[in-house]
Write a sequence for this structure.
């Protein structure tokens, strides 16, 4: 019984295998081969097909090389994209001429999170060429009585999965030249028809109209530009209704893969999105972004070339179109016009939305943003100290009060200036950074912690600010007060940067996208806004009435504020642990203990009335502290592993623009947010809004896919994505609807539950028609 | 105290680079080679620098190394005070792998260890090989293929890097200054 069963099974298997092999039309022995040896196996099997084994002189006939690839491997299109090599066929048929390959529409492959884009074919492809024998071929070529001619082809290709393997093989078979050709084998004919249907055709032949507009009148070497490609399929017959146009959709899973560019003379283009704007009456508008290389074009008449896949409503089968449109070029340094067109209108977000804000508005936003920063959680501990300082000064002379206000302003502005200079300097040196970037540097976090601890110790009365505690009278006391105010200004700026405020995002985005003088101007405006409330207070003497005379309460308040500062240090230690690991966190704690000891020593010298030694120590100790900072083992430290890493409130997948596009392509609405551990504004939003049960429920109900970009440590991809939306820092909240995948709703920096729920509801996909 | 605070600010120097553009300052980098020695672009000012993206597992790299394309050119340019640095951004590469490859092939220049892909992303390196030429001022002057012969079938390939560096040393600009690189894609993590 058992043997019988095994026999049946074996028989079935043999039958199945035979059935699989029969799926492709058979070819003679020399016409099949395999190549691209990878260990013990080959990755590519190739077969040489002729559609008809008998051909008439002067009549065109189709030849094809069928490549069958192992799963996961791909070969390349005529433009391989950012790596790879185009597949090549060299035909050798005595007496016949063979045309170029008719390339089927390629697939788009993205590697390394979309960093490398290539174009090609996975699984299988039939590369078709047309050949023809000259009418008088028999006299010129030695063709036997049978009329048999050998058809030979050398195929050359690169096949890649993770590894790349070059493959090379030669295939041959016979074809008969006769005046009485027979019908082709139906299976072979079907194979040719199947792949020929995927070969892009002239737009005219498909009743499709194409038109392109560009964001400038001509493209110069080195320019980056935007373009829009309009695709329409209208009835253009005389007398027909000109508005009877087909509703078009991308013929691939999403708009970014529906246009595949050819290799053009120094121009790289990629599709960024697509939509059906009203002015195209059903037509499809693809948005493209492009870049010209630094070299002068070989041909001053540029062309935009590529292939396009579209699908007419209810057609259920995509159509493939060759794109070949004018693309005006100009030499380097030529004057060109920036063009605005309603076609390009939605795309400015992709170029640089920040620069569309006029300067006066950016300045106003900067000022308002700076002002509001005073209410954000980062600056609060420093502000508390400032309030205390003011209280202390309440009953001093007006001059002293005003001087302290001016010193605070000077401290804020000087620090802003230093920050602006640093940003501009880094950029001139070829390095771009974002708002709050210093918190991505563990050494900076360590430095700020140390400064806060020193301040706290000062508030506890461990030491006094000033070189010389023995001359605390007169001018010296005033100078010490002013110096202190200056330092408070500095500290306010330093701790303010990880916070973002309403208006500030746009202003800072504008600054980071502008030439350096504007960076300076915007930063100073932010600083001015930040310092403004206190400067105003010092100018209005009436407030002093509300402050009681100084007494013991002040000492208690000082201590209280010192504890608030130490709380901030806890937060910084947390950041350090998250970004550089527990070892770095411990090293920082040890460092803070040593710094405290140094500060205590300094205070002791002050109290011992040893001005000389104290003065020496005031120079020597900070130097020593700096040296110690440099030796902290944090710079090389690795961040904590993902497992113990970010536990976001709304759990999402790690951000990658490719995956966001893929999700939108599947028809899901998408929520993307960018955050950082050091960004307090982000954390507050996450706690108050994302952790709200209504939010989680809504996201789930509407089928949102959520992606998180964590900018705690430097990440170029995230910086670029922020810049794309005109921001230079976190947070950034984007709510995408699959109906308009290139126009998400950009939410403000400070969120409320209602506002967020509204945005989600708006972006839920609207009545999707069932494609079947 | 103010001074030290400002010194803190200037400590934040290492930051995210802009993508490399020909004619603009090349992104700075600081990386160790297979011997642990640190290389910093900023410290090579005054010398032309060639960056070569490499991966011994890639057939295109293997072809050029068996033809000694890189080794010979590096030696010839080295005689003219040009610094040649290979960069390996392959996720699985280790200094040991590099040392082994180096002793097999017998070349002298260092290979920067970039398994996390930071330099590769900063420069937009897409293929192995992918070549960059930086002038003595730190400006990127050439980016693209090593030569005009992706298939390795030309008897007289035009070496873009050789021509470009020679043009630079003669006070001219590389022409072409950008070409389409060919090869395997860089195997980023």
């Amino acid at each position: 019984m058992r043997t019988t069963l095994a026999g049946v099974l074996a028989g079935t298997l043999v039958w199945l295998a035979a059935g699989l092999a029969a799926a492709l039309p058979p070819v003679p022995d020399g016409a099949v081969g395999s190549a691209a040896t990878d260990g013990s196996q080959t990755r590519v099997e190739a077969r040489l097909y002729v559609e008809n084994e008998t051909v008439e002189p002067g009549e065109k006939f189709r030849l094809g090389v069928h490549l069958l690839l192992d799963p996961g491997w791909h070969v390349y299109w005529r433009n391989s994209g950012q790596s790879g090599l185009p597949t090549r066929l060299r035909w050798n048929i005595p007496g016949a001429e063979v045309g170029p390959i008719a390339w089927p529409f390629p697939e788009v492959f993205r590697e390394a999170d979309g960093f490398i884009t290539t174009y090609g074919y996975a699984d299988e492809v039939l590369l078709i060429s047309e050949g023809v024998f000259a009418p008088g071929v028999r006299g010129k070529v030695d063709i036997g009585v049978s009329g048999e001619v050998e058809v030979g082809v050398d195929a050359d290709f690169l096949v890649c999965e993770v590894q790349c393997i070059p493959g090379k093989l030669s295939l041959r078979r016979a074809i008969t030249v006769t005046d009485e050709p027979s019908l082709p084998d139906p299976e072979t004919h079907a194979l040719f028809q199947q792949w020929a249907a995927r070969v892009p055709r002239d737009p005219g032949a498909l009743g499709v109209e194409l038109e392109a507009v560009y964001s400038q009148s001509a493209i110069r070497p080195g320019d980056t530009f935007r373009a829009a490609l309009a695709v329409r399929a209208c009835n253009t017959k005389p007398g027909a209704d000109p508005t009877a146009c087909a509703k078009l959709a991308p013929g691939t899973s999403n708009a970014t893969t529906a246009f595949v560019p050819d290799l053009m003379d120094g121009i790289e283009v990629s599709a960024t999105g697509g939509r059906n704007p009203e002015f195209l009456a059903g037509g499809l508008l693809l948005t493209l972004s492009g870049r010209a290389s630094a070299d002068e074009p070989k041909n001053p008449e540029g062309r935009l070339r590529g292939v396009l896949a579209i699908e007419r409503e209810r057609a259920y089968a995509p159509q493939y179109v060759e794109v070949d449109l004018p693309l005006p070029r100009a030499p380097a340094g030529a004057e060109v016009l920036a063009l605005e067109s309603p076609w390009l209108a939605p795309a400015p977000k992709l170029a640089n939305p920040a620069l569309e804000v006029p300067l006066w508005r950016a300045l106003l936003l900067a000022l308002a943003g700076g002002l509001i920063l005073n209410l954000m959680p980062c600056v609060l501990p420093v502000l508390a100290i400032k309030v205390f300082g003011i209280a202390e000064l309440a009953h001093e002379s007006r001059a002293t009060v005003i001087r302290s206000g001016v010193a605070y302003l000077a401290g804020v502005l000087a620090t802003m200036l230093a920050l602006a200079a640093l940003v501009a300097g880094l950029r001139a040196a070829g390095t771009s950074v974002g708002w709050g970037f210093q918190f991505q540097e563990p050494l900076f976090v360590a430095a700020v912690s140390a400064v806060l601890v020193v301040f706290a110790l000062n508030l506890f009365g461990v030491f006094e600010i000033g070189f010389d505690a023995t001359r605390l009278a007169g001018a010296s006391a005033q100078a010490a007060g002013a110096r202190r105010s200056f330092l408070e200004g500095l500290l306010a700026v330093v701790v303010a940067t990880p916070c973002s405020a309403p208006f500030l995002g746009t202003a800072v985005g504008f600054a980071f996208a502008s030439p350096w003088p504007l960076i300076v101007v915007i930063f100073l405006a932010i600083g001015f806004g930040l310092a403004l409330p206190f400067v105003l207070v010092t100018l209005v003497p009436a407030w002093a009435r509300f402050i009681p005379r100084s007494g013991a309460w002040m000492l208690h308040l000082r201590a209280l504020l010192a504890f608030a500062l130490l709380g901030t240090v806890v937060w910084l230690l947390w950041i350090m642990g998250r970004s550089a690991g527990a070892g770095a966190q411990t090293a920082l704690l040890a460092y803070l203990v040593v710094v405290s000891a140094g500060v205590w020593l300094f205070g002791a010298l002050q109290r011992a009335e040893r001005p000389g030694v104290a003065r020496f120590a005031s120079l020597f100790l900070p130097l020593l502290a700096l040296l110690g900072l440099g030796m902290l083992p944090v710079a090389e430290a690795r961040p904590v592993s993902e497992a113990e890493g970010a536990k976001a409130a709304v759990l999402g997948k790690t951000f990658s623009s490719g995956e966001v596009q893929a999700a939108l392509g599947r028809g899901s609405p998408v929520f993307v947010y960018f955050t950082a551990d050091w960004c307090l504004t982000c954390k507050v939003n996450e706690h108050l809004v994302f952790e709200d049960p209504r939010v989680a429920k809504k996201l789930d109900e509407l089928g949102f896919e959520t992606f998180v970009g964590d900018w705690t440590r430097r990440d170029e991809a995230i910086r670029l994505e922020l810049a794309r939306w005109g921001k230079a820092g976190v947070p950034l909240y984007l709510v995408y609807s699959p109906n308009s995948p290139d126009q998400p709703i950009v939410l403000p920096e400070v969120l409320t539950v209602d506002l967020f729920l509204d945005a989600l509801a708006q972006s839920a996909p609207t009545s999707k028609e069932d494609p079947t | 105290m103010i001074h030290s605070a400002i010194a803190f600010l200037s400590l934040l120097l290492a930051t995210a680079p802009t993508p490399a553009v020909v004619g603009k300052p090349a992104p700075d980098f600081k990386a160790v080679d297979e011997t642990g020695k640190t290389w910093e672009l900023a410290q090579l000012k005054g010398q032309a620098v060639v960056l070569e993206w490499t991966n011994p597992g890639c057939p295109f790299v293997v072809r050029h190394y068996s033809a000694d394309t890189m080794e010979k050119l590096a030696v010839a340019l080295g005689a003219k005070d040009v610094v040649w640095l290979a960069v390996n951004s392959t996720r699985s590469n280790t200094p040991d792998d590099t040392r082994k490859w180096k002793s097999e092939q017998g070349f002298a220049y260092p290979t920067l260890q970039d398994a996390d892909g930071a330099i590769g992303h900063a420069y937009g390196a897409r293929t192995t090989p992918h070549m960059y030429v930086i002038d003595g001022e730190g400006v990127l002057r050439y980016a693209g293929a090593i030569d005009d012969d992706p298939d390795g079938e030309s008897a007289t390939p035009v070496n873009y890097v050789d021509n470009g560096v020679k043009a630079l040393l003669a006070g001219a600009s590389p022409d072409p200054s950008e070409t389409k690189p060919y090869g395997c894609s860089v195997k980023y993590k």
Observations:
- The domain at 20-185 of chain B is CATH 3.40.30.10 (Glutaredoxin).
- Chain B has one domain: 20-185.
- The longest strand of chain B covers residues 83-88.
- The radius of gyration of chain B is 17 Å.
